[in-house]
Amino acid sequence: MIKAVRGVRDILPSETPRWQRVEAAARRVFEAYGYREIRVPLFERTELFARGIGDETDIVKKEMYTFEDRGGDSLTLRPEATACVLRAYIEHGFQVEPKPVRLYTMGPMFRYERPQAGRYRQFHQANVEALGETHPALDAEVIAMLMDFFGALGLAGRLELRVNSIGDTGTRPVYVSRLVEYLGPHRSELCGECQARIDRNPLRILDCKTPGCQPVIEKAPSILDSLSPEATEHFDSVRRSLDAMGVEYKVAPRLVRGLDYYVRTTFEVLTTELGSQNAVAGGGRYDGLIAQLDGPADPGIGFAIGLERVVLLLGDEAHAAGPVALLIPLGEAALQRLLPAARRARQGGVPVELGYGIRKLPRELERANRLGAEWAVIAGDNELARGEAVIREMSTGAQRHVPLDTLAEELLRLGGARTEPRYT
Ligand code: HAM
After folding, report:
1. Which of 178, 230, 231, 367 has the most crowded CB, counting CB atoms within 10 A?
2. Selection from 399, 397, 394 nearest residue 369 by Cα
3. Beta strand spans in 216-336 (E)
């Protein structure tokens, strides 16, 4: 038997109602804030990610699905969407549009990580980018929108928003050298990976989850004490705007994020309910990245939400609704009368299911129950002779007759009580 590849999963019909609910909430909230959808390819030139995400990041060093195509080009399945959206922004000349240019996209991302609950090799993100504006109020708006998305799903109270500023590229080296100076004497207390990071990428040590490293990390100097006056003012202003909007957050000076492109504002949304995979969303500002990808000197800020993790948090609360009715013809002649009625109901958006006259009535009624149909519509030779069908309410067993000529209207009426969306 051929099975799905490790770390990659099917999203089954029992789960898709929750996915649809999450995606619909994202679209509704993002569009209310003026974001427009862009759809970018699933693979790009490898160079885009190497330059866009950073050569020293875990993603680029060890997590990319990179392959050579038949023409000899090195391509990579997108591990995130930001670099792709910026590539499209530059390529299509979006910089001439009124700023900020607000874009969102949703879809699968690919990272070769060790799979575990909540962590997959193909996973899905809802990703947002606001481009061309440095004002700190935009940072606050972007963060508020993220929390509104969780609010729309009733999850806000179960999540914690953490915000930080990691300063400008110009002043960050000052902090990094302070950090390295502090870490030096503690080298032997750190895990192997962090020991290597001291020389390669010391900021990432702050993000290490290994319990042994925590005492050292907790006493590390705070990046907030090393910010430039401009970066401090920017962060204070973001916080004032968040406060004005009533967005609750914690300042987390050790929040550094795993991608190299961030400057100033960074943020993450965490849960305590999914074990070690506790980040449900993350993002930040990345002024300079567009220029680094050969585009204009436009700033940007954005975030991505891990949709698998959101769906896990929703649990089993959303169920797919069954059909409004199962139409049960008892024989070929009845089937030909019920087929057009089923089509008319479906054209009117009312979901119905149809037997093909090949099973006996008790089996079909059993099927109606298993499908979760609210009604069964039964037509045999006797009913056909009278030009009628029997409608049976599945929950009570109560039955009545309807003329076959008006059956489609009756189904539309019964289905009309069901309003969109089809998930509850
Ligand atoms: P990220 O923090 O790498 O940021 O990913 C964002 C979210 O995607 C994570 O918080 C997590 O919920 C989810 N995620 C990441 N990896 C996996 C995985 N292997 N399995 C399941 N879920 C996962 C970015 O990707 C940035 N591009 C966000 C951004 C947009 N920054 C600015 N604009």
Report:
1. 231
2. 394
3. 250-251, 263-270, 279-285, 300-306, 325-329
* Mean pLDDT computed over 266-280: 90
CA angle 135, 268, 94 (to 5 degrees): 45
Which residue puts its alpha carbon closest to atom 13 of ligand 1? 306
Residue identifier of the C-alpha nearest atom 14 of ligand 1: 306
Ligand 1 centre from 27 Cα, in Å? 18
Token pair in block for residue 122: 């193909």
d(Cα 337, Cα 322) in Å, to the nearest integer?
23
Find the mean pLDDT for residues 240-257. 95
Q: What is the pLDDT of residues 132-159, one digit of tens each?
A: 999 999 999 999 999 999 999 999 999 9
pLDDT tens, 276-329?
Answer: 779 999 999 999 999 999 999 999 999 999 999 999 999 876 566 789 999 999
Q: How far is CA 157 from CA 27, 161, 397, 422, in A?
A: 21, 10, 43, 26
What confidence score (pLDDT) does residue 317 get?
62
Mean pLDDT across 243-262: 91
Residues in contact with ligand 1 by the CB-under-6-Å rule are: 80, 82, 111, 113, 119-120, 123, 125, 127, 129, 258-259, 279-284, 302-304, 306, 308-309
Ligand 1 atom nearest to CA at 279: 10
DSSP string for residues in 79-120: S-SHHHHHHHHHHTTGGGSSSSEEEEEEEEEE-----BTTB-
Nearest CA owner, ligand 1 atom 32:
302
Mutate to test the pocket of ligand 1, among 30, 62, 125, 265 (most ligand atoms within 8 A of CB): 125
